[in-house]
Backbone:
């Protein structure tokens, strides 16, 4: 049975997926930077959800659900409503489209992000691969 | 709307021109209004290099209002390079300053007996002698004219030696290297012996509901400043997309003939930010500030002897304009050059001479390509061996082109003529005489239609659809997101995006500003006293697009002109765009259908023109 998004099990499975996926390991081999995904309430999500991932050289060193934004100072913060995150997860919204149409806000070094767009896109692929069971 | 200042350089007569209210409403300003105003005078027989040829500099209803990225103006006329509609818009501060003088445009006709420049203030217009400025570069004239007028805060827009010498891709430049680059109107200015126009004013910009407008524009600027795209452009400049474009295969290399360039990463916007970037620059009231300011590193090779003869390229440690995307690719991967410092110098050289960097680098790229193919040799080039990546030779070709010396006389005619001169017109990567910019339709197929149908030849500023192919498909505008290497299914989407950008070009609003359509409507309505919807806005864009098409039809453009050069219809063997070519004919058929254009003649149908309120144009094209 696959994990349901968004649940703690899903985040754990994502960490396992990132550490096992050969394609991600290859594409993200130079990536250095932890990431906080801020999911704003909407649809079935009643409260803000904070997913933290420590990504390093094609591996995921840590995943954790945080309670407060101030707990970490990550290299990157991705912020969107649950509806838009769910659409990205389902493949209905392209991540680049989300960035370019103000549906996904990005904080952090844009130079680094632009150099590593393939890594970002493959990270999203891995997120989608973990499950098709997305709460709506 | 404020009056347009008409100036006849032959007679030196000047007069204010009031735009009819219905044209102001239907076209707003900028390029669309220019098309309406110039419609009757742009004929097939009109020689761009004649006193009758008009040059119309126009602002938009938001120019100078400190709205989101709206400090621009446009110059329009008939292009000496294409023989078709010419328009080229420009940032900086000149457009706002003209409006502060109480004019929304300057309409030039005639030809001065000798070199002159105009000085415009709120109270005075002077036609001043410019014989002593002839031959000076586009930066030198700015400082000299300001000194001469005793107006250090004036803004000066003018031409360099390339415009004086009739280079068909001569541009018009102002401020910190901001250029009306394309379609060669700098050469028309040169023919008219008009070296420059200086403006300085203190007037207020007329706004219908100024309080409401100012609230809206303040909110719009705040939102724009935090937008993802704005932040990328601020941090990395317009070259920010280089790495991603290379990944997609949409960044041309080796004159559109190589799918990969292993050193592409050395010349990206990110690399610039990490190495030579020393600051940023902005156009009037722009919160993005995409302009690059760089310092060349110690150890950079000095410019060549021939370069030292020309103006002042400054010392290595001096802060100078850094390359934007088109310059970076044109003098970089397009010529297999990975030297950022050299790209910076070559771009500055073009700016100083007053030459469009896209057309200059593209035409030089063609020369390199033909040399490699054995179609031309060192006998044709005056002894120069054209080897990919040799920036010293590129620099010499720039000098020769601007001066029309040796092989440069032929390069100065643009790539179509250069190719034809050596029996290889098909090798030139141009459409209707305008060189193709650096967004390869094999990687982002919407650009195939954009290039083939643009009213000024191959152009990315009539529609930057590559952004839509990457994901900037704004639902507010009714835009869909299609596969980037798709086909005919995206034709109507391309047409809609062209309408949107035509509206932006009438405002005149920078296309890099990712402003929501509803916000733009609010700004227009409060500034102009209108009650438009997004749909009304797109319809105004569609009207402008069809009017420009009709102007070109009257000047001889037909269905046969809607085409792409051979190179863009051959697949790459490797890279992000490998194996794909856009199905142009299928795309065009769908596009004509979406546009309501006649597939035989290539004209907008009578019904379409009447529907858009272009009755007189319908009568001209279809003899009602």
Residues:
């Amino acid at each position: 049975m696959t994990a349901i998004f968004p649940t703690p099990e899903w985040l754990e499975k994502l960490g396992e997926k990132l550490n096992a996926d050969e394609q991600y390991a290859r594409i993200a081999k130079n990536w250095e930077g932890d990431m906080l995904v801020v999911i704003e309430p909407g649809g079935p999500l009643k409260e803000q959800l904070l997913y933290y991932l420590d990504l390093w050289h094609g591996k995921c060193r840590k995943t954790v659900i945080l309670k407060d934004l101030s707990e970490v100072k990550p290299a990157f913060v991705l912020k969107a409503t649950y509806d838009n995150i769910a659409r990205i997860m389902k493949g209905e919204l392209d991540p680049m489209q989300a960035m370019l149409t103000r549906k996904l806000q990005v904080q952090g070094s844009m130079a680094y992000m632009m150099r590593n767009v393939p890594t970002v896109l493959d990270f999203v692929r891995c997120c989608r691969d973990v499950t098709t069971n997305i709460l709506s | 709307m404020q009056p347009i200042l008409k100036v006849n350089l032959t007679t030196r007569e000047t007069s204010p021109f009031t735009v009819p209210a219905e044209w102001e409403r239907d076209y707003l300003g900028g390029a669309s209004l220019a098309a309406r105003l110039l419609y009757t005078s742009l004929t097939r027989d009109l020689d761009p290099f004649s006193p009758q040829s008009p040059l119309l500099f126009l602002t938009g209803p938001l120019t100078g209002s400190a709205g989101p990225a709206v400090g621009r103006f446009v110059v329009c006329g008939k292009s000496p390079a294409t023989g078709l509609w010419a328009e080229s818009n420009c940032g900086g501060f000149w457009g706002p300053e003209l409006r502060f003088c109480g004019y929304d445009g300057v309409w030039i006709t005639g030809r001065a007996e000798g070199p002159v420049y105009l000085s415009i203030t709120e109270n005075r217009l002077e036609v001043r002698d410019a014989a002593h400025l002839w031959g000076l570069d586009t930066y030198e004239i700015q400082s000299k004219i300001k000194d001469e007028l005793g107006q250090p805060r004036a803004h000066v827009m003018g031409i360099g030696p390339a415009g004086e010498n009739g280079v068909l891709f001569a541009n018009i430049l102002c401020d910190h290297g901001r250029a009306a680059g394309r379609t060669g109107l700098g050469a028309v200015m040169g023919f008219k012996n008009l070296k420059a126009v200086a403006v300085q004013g203190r007037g207020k910009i007329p706004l219908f509901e100024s309080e409401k407008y100012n609230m809206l524009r303040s909110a719009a600027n705040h939102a724009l400043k935090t937008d993802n795209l704005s932040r990328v452009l601020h941090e990395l400049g317009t070259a920010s997309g280089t790495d991603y474009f290379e990944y997609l295969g949409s960044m041309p290399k080796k004159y559109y003939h190589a799918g990969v360039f292993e050193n592409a990463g050395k010349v990206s916007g990110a690399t610039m930010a990490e190495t030579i970037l020393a600051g940023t620059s902005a156009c009037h009231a722009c919160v993005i500030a995409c302009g690059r300011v760089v310092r060349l590193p110690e150890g950079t090779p000095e410019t060549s002897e021939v370069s030292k003869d020309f103006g002042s390229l400054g010392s290595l440690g001096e802060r100078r304009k850094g390359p934007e995307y088109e310059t970076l690719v044109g003098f970089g991967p397009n010529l297999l050059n990975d030297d950022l410092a050299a790209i910076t110098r070559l771009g500055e050289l073009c700016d100083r001479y007053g030459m469009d960097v896209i057309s200059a680098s593209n035409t030089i790229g063609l020369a390199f390509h033909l040399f490699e193919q054995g179609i031309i040799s060192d006998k044709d080039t005056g002894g120069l061996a054209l080897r990919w990546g040799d920036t010293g030779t590129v620099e010499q070709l720039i000098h020769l082109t601007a001066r029309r010396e040796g092989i440069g006389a032929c390069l100065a005619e643009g790539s179509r003529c250069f190719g034809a001169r050596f029996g290889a017109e098909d090798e030139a990567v141009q459409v209707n005489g305008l060189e193709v910019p650096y967004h390869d339709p094999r990687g982002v197929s919407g650009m195939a239609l954009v290039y083939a149908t643009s009213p000024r030849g191959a152009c990315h500023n009539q529609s930057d659809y590559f952004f839509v192919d990457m994901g900037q498909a704004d639902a507010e505008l009714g835009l869909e997101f299609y596969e980037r290497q798709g086909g005919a299914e995206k034709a109507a989407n391309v047409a809609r995006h062209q309408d949107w950008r035509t509206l932006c070009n009438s405002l005149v609003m920078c296309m890099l500003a990712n402003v929501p359509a509803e916000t733009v409507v609010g700004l227009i309505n409060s500034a102009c006293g209108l009650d438009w919807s997004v749909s009304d806005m797109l319809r105004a864009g569609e009207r402008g697009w069809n009017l420009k098409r009709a102007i070109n039809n009257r000047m001889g453009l037909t269905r046969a002109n809607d085409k792409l050069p051979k190179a863009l219809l051959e697949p790459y063997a490797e890279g992000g765009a490998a194996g794909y070519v856009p199905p142009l004919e299928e795309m065009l058929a769908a596009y004509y259908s979406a546009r309501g254009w006649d597939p035989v003649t290539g004209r907008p149908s009578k019904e379409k023109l009447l529907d858009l309120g272009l009755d007189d144009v319908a009568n001209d094209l279809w003899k009602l």
Notes: Confidence is low (pLDDT under 50) at residues 304-312 of chain B. Chain B is about 40% helix and 10% strand. Chain B touches chain A through 29 residues (CB under 8 Å). The CA atoms of residues 40 and 435 of chain B lie 27 Å apart.
